[in-house]
Protein backbone atom coordinates (compact mmCIF):
# COMPACT_ATOMS: atom_id res chain seq x y z
CA UNK A 1 0.00 0.00 0.00
CA UNK A 2 1.35 3.39 -0.89
CA UNK A 3 1.73 5.75 2.07
CA UNK A 4 -0.64 8.63 2.58
CA UNK A 5 0.86 11.99 1.68
CA UNK A 6 -0.40 15.49 2.16
CA UNK A 7 0.11 18.21 -0.43
CA UNK A 8 3.28 19.14 1.45
CA UNK A 9 6.01 16.76 0.28
CA UNK A 10 7.80 17.17 3.63
CA UNK A 11 4.90 15.62 5.57
CA UNK A 12 3.54 12.06 5.59
CA UNK A 13 0.28 11.23 7.35
CA UNK A 14 -0.50 7.51 7.77
CA UNK A 15 -4.07 6.68 8.80
CA UNK A 16 -3.57 2.98 9.54
CA UNK A 17 -0.84 0.64 10.77
CA UNK A 18 -0.32 -0.94 7.33
CA UNK A 19 0.28 2.52 5.86
CA UNK A 20 2.78 3.25 8.61
CA UNK A 21 4.58 -0.01 7.81
CA UNK A 22 4.69 0.91 4.11
CA UNK A 23 6.08 4.37 4.84
CA UNK A 24 8.89 3.00 6.98
CA UNK A 25 9.78 0.25 4.53
CA UNK A 26 9.83 2.62 1.56
CA UNK A 27 11.91 5.19 3.45
CA UNK A 28 14.92 2.92 4.09
CA UNK A 29 18.00 4.79 2.92
CA UNK A 30 15.78 7.33 1.12
CA UNK A 31 14.50 9.74 3.76
CA UNK A 32 14.73 10.47 7.46
CA UNK A 33 11.41 10.55 9.29
CA UNK A 34 10.56 12.77 12.23
CA UNK A 35 7.64 11.19 14.17
CA UNK A 36 5.17 13.68 15.61
CA UNK A 37 1.94 13.26 17.52
CA UNK A 38 0.15 16.17 19.17
CA UNK A 39 3.49 17.84 20.05
CA UNK A 40 2.39 18.53 23.63
CA UNK A 41 5.49 16.97 25.23
CA UNK A 42 8.36 18.89 23.63
CA UNK A 43 11.82 17.49 24.24
CA UNK A 44 15.21 18.89 23.44
CA UNK A 45 16.11 19.03 19.78
CA UNK A 46 19.66 18.28 18.73
CA UNK A 47 20.74 19.98 15.56
CA UNK A 48 23.01 17.55 13.75
CA UNK A 49 24.22 17.07 10.17
CA UNK A 50 21.95 14.86 8.09
CA UNK A 51 22.64 13.13 4.81
CA UNK A 52 19.06 13.75 3.68
CA UNK A 53 16.16 16.05 4.43
CA UNK A 54 13.86 15.26 7.32
CA UNK A 55 10.24 14.40 6.52
CA UNK A 56 7.61 14.80 9.21
CA UNK A 57 5.81 11.56 10.05
CA UNK A 58 2.56 12.94 11.45
CA UNK A 59 0.75 10.33 13.55
CA UNK A 60 -2.21 12.47 14.57
CA UNK A 61 -4.58 10.69 12.17
CA UNK A 62 -3.82 7.16 13.33
CA UNK A 63 -6.79 5.17 14.76
CA UNK A 64 -8.07 5.96 18.25
CA UNK A 65 -9.55 2.89 19.94
CA UNK A 66 -10.20 1.99 23.58
CA UNK A 67 -11.00 -1.59 24.70
CA UNK A 68 -11.49 -1.42 28.48
CA UNK A 69 -12.31 -4.36 30.77
CA UNK A 70 -13.48 -2.86 34.11
CA UNK A 71 -13.61 -6.23 35.87
CA UNK A 72 -9.98 -7.10 35.04
CA UNK A 73 -8.95 -3.40 35.29
CA UNK A 74 -7.05 -3.61 31.99
CA UNK A 75 -7.31 -1.51 28.85
CA UNK A 76 -5.98 -2.01 25.33
CA UNK A 77 -5.63 1.33 23.59
CA UNK A 78 -4.11 2.64 20.37
CA UNK A 79 -1.12 4.89 20.91
CA UNK A 80 -2.72 7.92 19.28
CA UNK A 81 -5.63 8.01 21.73
CA UNK A 82 -5.70 11.30 23.68
CA UNK A 83 -5.13 10.88 27.40
CA UNK A 84 -8.28 12.91 28.06
CA UNK A 85 -10.41 10.36 26.19
CA UNK A 86 -8.79 7.42 27.97
CA UNK A 87 -9.14 9.09 31.36
CA UNK A 88 -12.84 9.73 30.72
CA UNK A 89 -13.40 6.08 29.76
CA UNK A 90 -11.63 4.87 32.90
CA UNK A 91 -13.41 7.41 35.13
CA UNK A 92 -16.79 6.09 33.97
CA UNK A 93 -15.90 2.80 35.68
CA UNK A 94 -14.36 4.33 38.82
CA UNK A 95 -10.81 3.70 37.54
CA UNK A 96 -7.78 5.75 36.49
CA UNK A 97 -4.78 5.27 34.23
CA UNK A 98 -1.71 5.22 36.49
CA UNK A 99 0.40 7.19 37.04
CA UNK A 100 -1.93 9.89 35.63
CA UNK A 101 -4.34 10.71 38.47
CA UNK A 102 -6.69 13.59 37.71
CA UNK A 103 -9.09 15.29 40.05
CA UNK A 104 -6.33 16.44 42.42
CA UNK A 105 -4.27 19.66 42.65
CA UNK A 106 -1.68 17.96 40.41
CA UNK A 107 -3.73 18.51 37.26
CA UNK A 108 -2.38 21.86 36.12
CA UNK A 109 1.24 21.15 36.81
CA UNK A 110 2.53 18.11 34.91
CA UNK A 111 3.92 17.01 32.61
CA UNK A 112 5.58 19.73 30.58
CA UNK A 113 3.25 22.37 32.00
CA UNK A 114 0.51 21.34 29.56
CA UNK A 115 -1.60 19.56 32.20
CA UNK A 116 -1.80 15.93 33.10
CA UNK A 117 -4.13 15.00 30.25
CA UNK A 118 -2.22 16.69 27.44
CA UNK A 119 -1.09 14.53 24.56
CA UNK A 120 -1.63 10.84 23.87
CA UNK A 121 -1.11 7.58 25.72
CA UNK A 122 1.70 6.74 23.28
CA UNK A 123 3.37 10.03 24.11
CA UNK A 124 3.17 9.29 27.81
CA UNK A 125 4.78 5.87 27.24
CA UNK A 126 7.58 7.37 25.12
CA UNK A 127 8.39 10.28 27.44
CA UNK A 128 11.43 9.50 29.64
CA UNK A 129 10.71 12.17 32.21
CA UNK A 130 9.53 11.27 35.69
CA UNK A 131 6.25 12.46 37.14
CA UNK A 132 6.20 13.85 40.64
CA UNK A 133 4.01 10.92 41.70
CA UNK A 134 6.63 8.34 40.69
CA UNK A 135 7.35 7.48 44.33
CA UNK A 136 3.70 6.88 45.25
CA UNK A 137 2.11 5.60 42.02
CA UNK A 138 5.17 4.14 40.29
CA UNK A 139 6.74 4.91 36.92
CA UNK A 140 4.89 4.55 33.63
CA UNK A 141 6.75 1.30 32.85
CA UNK A 142 5.32 -0.25 36.03
CA UNK A 143 1.80 -0.20 34.57
CA UNK A 144 2.31 -1.21 30.93
CA UNK A 145 1.61 -4.89 30.27
CA UNK A 146 2.52 -4.97 26.60
CA UNK A 147 2.91 -3.03 23.36
CA UNK A 148 2.54 -3.36 19.60
CA UNK A 149 4.88 -1.30 17.43
CA UNK A 150 6.67 -1.00 14.10
CA UNK A 151 10.47 -1.02 14.06
CA UNK A 152 12.45 1.64 12.26
CA UNK A 153 13.04 -0.80 9.38
CA UNK A 154 9.28 -1.28 8.94
CA UNK A 155 8.92 -4.62 10.75
CA UNK A 156 5.85 -4.90 13.03
CA UNK A 157 6.40 -6.55 16.43
CA UNK A 158 4.68 -7.26 19.74
CA UNK A 159 5.95 -7.48 23.31
CA UNK A 160 3.98 -8.62 26.33
CA UNK A 161 0.19 -8.69 26.17
CA UNK A 162 -3.09 -7.89 27.83
CA UNK A 163 -2.75 -10.60 30.51
CA UNK A 164 -0.21 -10.49 33.34
CA UNK A 165 2.05 -13.54 33.04
CA UNK A 166 5.64 -14.63 33.38
CA UNK A 167 8.07 -13.06 30.92
CA UNK A 168 10.97 -15.02 29.49
CA UNK A 169 13.98 -13.20 28.13
CA UNK A 170 14.46 -9.43 28.30
CA UNK A 171 11.39 -7.30 29.08
CA UNK A 172 11.22 -5.26 25.87
CA UNK A 173 8.03 -3.48 26.96
CA UNK A 174 9.75 -1.87 29.94
CA UNK A 175 13.00 -1.32 28.05
CA UNK A 176 11.34 0.71 25.28
CA UNK A 177 9.36 2.83 27.74
CA UNK A 178 10.77 6.36 27.73
CA UNK A 179 12.86 5.76 24.59
CA UNK A 180 11.15 8.60 22.64
CA UNK A 181 10.44 6.15 19.81
CA UNK A 182 14.11 5.61 19.15
CA UNK A 183 13.70 2.04 17.85
CA UNK A 184 10.20 2.16 16.45
CA UNK A 185 6.74 3.71 16.41
CA UNK A 186 4.35 2.50 19.13
CA UNK A 187 0.89 1.65 17.74
CA UNK A 188 -0.96 -0.05 20.61
CA UNK A 189 -0.55 -0.51 24.38
CA UNK A 190 -1.99 -2.79 27.06
CA UNK A 191 -2.27 -0.90 30.35
CA UNK A 192 -3.11 -1.93 33.91
CA UNK A 193 -5.70 0.35 35.57
CA UNK A 194 -6.33 1.13 39.25
CA UNK A 195 -9.36 2.15 41.35
CA UNK A 196 -9.82 5.91 41.33
CA UNK A 197 -9.46 7.70 44.70
CA UNK A 198 -12.68 9.36 45.85
CA UNK A 199 -11.11 12.06 48.00
CA UNK A 200 -8.18 14.45 47.57
CA UNK A 201 -6.65 16.91 50.03
CA UNK A 202 -3.80 19.39 49.76
CA UNK A 203 -2.00 21.97 51.87
CA UNK A 204 1.01 24.27 51.70
CA UNK A 205 3.39 25.31 54.45
CA UNK A 206 5.96 28.07 54.80
CA UNK A 207 9.12 27.83 56.90
CA UNK A 208 11.40 30.50 58.31
CA UNK A 209 14.68 28.94 57.16
CA UNK A 210 15.95 26.34 54.72
CA UNK A 211 17.01 24.05 57.55
CA UNK A 212 13.48 24.14 59.03
CA UNK A 213 12.05 23.43 55.57
CA UNK A 214 14.12 20.29 55.05
CA UNK A 215 13.50 19.12 58.61
CA UNK A 216 9.82 19.32 57.76
CA UNK A 217 10.36 17.30 54.58
CA UNK A 218 12.29 14.69 56.61
CA UNK A 219 9.43 14.50 59.10
CA UNK A 220 6.97 13.70 56.30
CA UNK A 221 9.28 11.07 54.86
CA UNK A 222 9.81 9.42 58.24
CA UNK A 223 6.15 9.37 59.31
CA UNK A 224 5.51 5.93 57.83
CA UNK A 225 3.69 6.94 54.65
CA UNK A 226 4.77 9.33 51.92
CA UNK A 227 1.97 11.44 50.38
CA UNK A 228 0.72 11.16 46.82
CA UNK A 229 2.95 14.12 45.99
CA UNK A 230 5.20 16.54 47.83
CA UNK A 231 6.91 19.50 46.19
CA UNK A 232 9.30 22.12 47.52
CA UNK A 233 9.98 25.69 46.41
CA UNK A 234 13.35 26.07 48.15
CA UNK A 235 13.85 29.76 47.32
CA UNK A 236 10.60 30.60 49.14
CA UNK A 237 10.92 27.90 51.87
CA UNK A 238 7.52 26.45 50.86
CA UNK A 239 6.42 22.80 51.03
CA UNK A 240 3.26 21.58 49.30
CA UNK A 241 1.55 18.23 49.91
CA UNK A 242 -1.17 16.35 48.03
CA UNK A 243 -2.91 13.22 49.32
CA UNK A 244 -5.68 11.08 47.83
CA UNK A 245 -7.59 7.98 48.92
CA UNK A 246 -10.69 5.90 48.34
CA UNK A 247 -12.25 6.84 51.69
CA UNK A 248 -11.64 9.35 54.48
CA UNK A 249 -7.95 8.51 54.78
CA UNK A 250 -6.78 11.54 52.73
CA UNK A 251 -8.22 14.14 55.11
CA UNK A 252 -7.15 12.19 58.19
CA UNK A 253 -3.60 11.78 56.90
CA UNK A 254 -3.43 15.45 55.87
CA UNK A 255 -4.26 16.45 59.43
CA UNK A 256 -1.38 14.25 60.60
CA UNK A 257 0.93 16.03 58.14
CA UNK A 258 -0.24 19.40 59.48
CA UNK A 259 0.64 18.46 63.03
CA UNK A 260 4.05 17.13 62.00
CA UNK A 261 4.96 20.23 60.01
CA UNK A 262 3.72 22.68 62.62
CA UNK A 263 5.88 20.89 65.19
CA UNK A 264 8.84 21.45 62.83
CA UNK A 265 8.32 25.20 62.33
CA UNK A 266 5.87 25.15 59.41
CA UNK A 267 2.99 27.60 59.04
CA UNK A 268 0.07 26.68 56.78
CA UNK A 269 -0.53 29.28 54.08
CA UNK A 270 -3.07 29.88 51.34
CA UNK A 271 -2.43 27.50 48.42
CA UNK A 272 -0.52 29.00 45.52
CA UNK A 273 0.35 27.05 42.38
CA UNK A 274 4.04 26.20 42.03
CA UNK A 275 5.91 28.16 39.44
CA UNK A 276 5.52 26.64 36.01
CA UNK A 277 6.38 27.89 32.55
CA UNK A 278 5.40 26.61 29.16
CA UNK A 279 8.08 25.30 26.84
CA UNK A 280 7.73 28.34 24.60
CA UNK A 281 8.15 30.78 27.48
CA UNK A 282 11.12 28.88 28.86
CA UNK A 283 13.05 29.44 25.62
CA UNK A 284 13.09 33.22 26.05
CA UNK A 285 15.69 34.07 28.67
CA UNK A 286 16.67 31.02 30.69
CA UNK A 287 17.28 27.34 30.22
CA UNK A 288 15.08 24.90 32.11
CA UNK A 289 16.95 21.81 33.32
CA UNK A 290 15.89 18.61 35.04
CA UNK A 291 18.08 17.75 38.02
CA UNK A 292 18.07 14.17 39.29
CA UNK A 293 19.54 13.30 42.67
CA UNK A 294 19.04 10.99 45.67
CA UNK A 295 16.69 12.21 48.37
CA UNK A 296 19.46 12.83 50.90
CA UNK A 297 21.18 15.41 48.63
CA UNK A 298 18.43 17.97 48.10
CA UNK A 299 19.08 20.07 51.19
CA UNK A 300 22.67 20.60 49.99
CA UNK A 301 21.86 20.98 46.29
CA UNK A 302 19.31 23.71 46.92
CA UNK A 303 21.73 25.94 48.78
CA UNK A 304 21.85 29.28 46.92
CA UNK A 305 23.96 29.16 43.76
CA UNK A 306 24.49 32.32 41.73
CA UNK A 307 21.96 32.55 38.92
CA UNK A 308 20.16 29.25 39.61
CA UNK A 309 16.43 29.56 40.23
CA UNK A 310 14.61 26.50 41.51
CA UNK A 311 11.19 26.01 39.97
CA UNK A 312 10.25 23.13 42.22
CA UNK A 313 11.84 20.08 43.82
CA UNK A 314 10.07 16.72 44.10
CA UNK A 315 12.36 15.14 46.71
CA UNK A 316 10.47 11.84 47.03
CA UNK A 317 10.54 11.37 43.24
CA UNK A 318 14.27 12.25 43.11
CA UNK A 319 14.07 15.11 40.59
CA UNK A 320 13.68 18.85 40.33
CA UNK A 321 13.32 21.59 37.71
CA UNK A 322 15.60 24.61 37.81
CA UNK A 323 16.59 27.51 35.59
CA UNK A 324 20.13 28.38 34.58
CA UNK A 325 21.38 31.93 34.02
CA UNK A 326 21.48 33.18 30.46
CA UNK A 327 23.37 36.41 29.80
CA UNK A 328 26.61 37.57 28.23
CA UNK A 329 28.74 37.16 31.35
CA UNK A 330 27.52 33.63 32.04
CA UNK A 331 26.70 31.75 28.84
CA UNK A 332 24.20 28.92 29.28
CA UNK A 333 26.66 26.25 28.17
CA UNK A 334 29.24 27.38 30.71
CA UNK A 335 26.65 27.38 33.50
CA UNK A 336 25.44 23.92 32.50
CA UNK A 337 28.90 22.38 32.46
CA UNK A 338 29.98 24.15 35.65
CA UNK A 339 26.96 22.96 37.62
CA UNK A 340 27.26 19.44 36.24
CA UNK A 341 30.85 19.28 37.50
CA UNK A 342 30.00 20.94 40.81
CA UNK A 343 27.04 18.67 41.60
CA UNK A 344 28.46 15.38 40.29
CA UNK A 345 30.09 14.49 43.66
CA UNK A 346 26.60 14.73 45.19
CA UNK A 347 25.26 12.12 42.78
CA UNK A 348 23.27 14.69 40.80
CA UNK A 349 22.79 14.77 37.02
CA UNK A 350 21.51 17.58 34.81
CA UNK A 351 19.58 17.30 31.55
CA UNK A 352 18.22 20.17 29.49
CA UNK A 353 14.41 20.17 29.69
CA UNK A 354 13.71 22.97 27.21
CA UNK A 355 16.32 24.28 24.81
CA UNK A 356 17.30 27.91 24.30
CA UNK A 357 18.63 29.26 20.98
CA UNK A 358 22.22 29.36 22.20
CA UNK A 359 22.14 25.58 22.74
CA UNK A 360 21.17 24.59 19.21
CA UNK A 361 23.80 22.43 17.57
CA UNK A 362 25.24 21.00 20.78
CA UNK A 363 25.76 17.26 20.99
CA UNK A 364 23.56 15.07 23.17
CA UNK A 365 26.36 14.41 25.67
CA UNK A 366 26.59 18.13 26.47
CA UNK A 367 22.83 18.50 26.79
CA UNK A 368 22.17 15.36 28.80
CA UNK A 369 25.52 14.29 30.21
CA UNK A 370 27.64 11.33 29.18
CA UNK A 371 26.64 7.94 30.49
CA UNK A 372 29.34 5.47 31.42
CA UNK A 373 29.37 2.31 29.26
CA UNK A 374 26.99 -0.33 30.59
CA UNK A 375 25.25 -3.51 29.52
CA UNK A 376 21.99 -1.59 29.04
CA UNK A 377 23.66 1.07 26.92
CA UNK A 378 25.33 -1.60 24.78
CA UNK A 379 21.98 -3.34 24.30
CA UNK A 380 20.38 -0.04 23.29
CA UNK A 381 23.05 0.61 20.67
CA UNK A 382 22.72 -2.93 19.32
CA UNK A 383 18.93 -2.66 19.06
CA UNK A 384 19.23 0.64 17.23
CA UNK A 385 21.56 -0.87 14.65
CA UNK A 386 19.39 -3.96 14.17
CA UNK A 387 15.94 -2.35 14.26
CA UNK A 388 16.73 0.89 12.42
CA UNK A 389 19.90 0.19 10.40
CA UNK A 390 19.47 3.22 8.11
CA UNK A 391 18.63 5.65 10.91
CA UNK A 392 15.20 6.24 9.38
CA UNK A 393 13.63 7.50 12.62
CA UNK A 394 15.13 10.80 13.71
CA UNK A 395 14.15 10.58 17.38
CA UNK A 396 16.71 13.18 18.49
CA UNK A 397 14.96 16.04 16.70
CA UNK A 398 11.48 15.00 17.73
CA UNK A 399 9.18 17.42 19.52
CA UNK A 400 7.59 14.49 21.26
CA UNK A 401 4.34 12.57 20.80
Describe this structure in words.
The protein has 401 residues and is an alpha+beta fold. 25% of the residues lie in helices and 24% in strands. It contains twelve helices and 18 strands. It has helices spanning 17-26, 83-91, 121-126, 134-137, 172-176, 210-221, 249-263, 279-282, 298-301, 332-343, 364-368, 375-387, and strands spanning 11-12, 32-36, 54-58, 66-69, 74-78, 95-96, 144-151, 156-160, 184-192, 194-195, 199-206, 229-233, 238-245, 267-269, 287-292, 309-314, 319-324, 349-354. The strands form five sheets. Strands 4-5-9-7-8 form a five-stranded antiparallel sheet. It has a four-stranded antiparallel sheet with strand order 12-13-11-14, covered by helices on one side. Helix 6 packs antiparallel against helix 7 (249-263). The longest helix is centred in the middle third of the chain and has 15 residues, at 249-263. It is globular. Residues 106-114, 276-285 and 397-401 have low confidence and may be disordered.
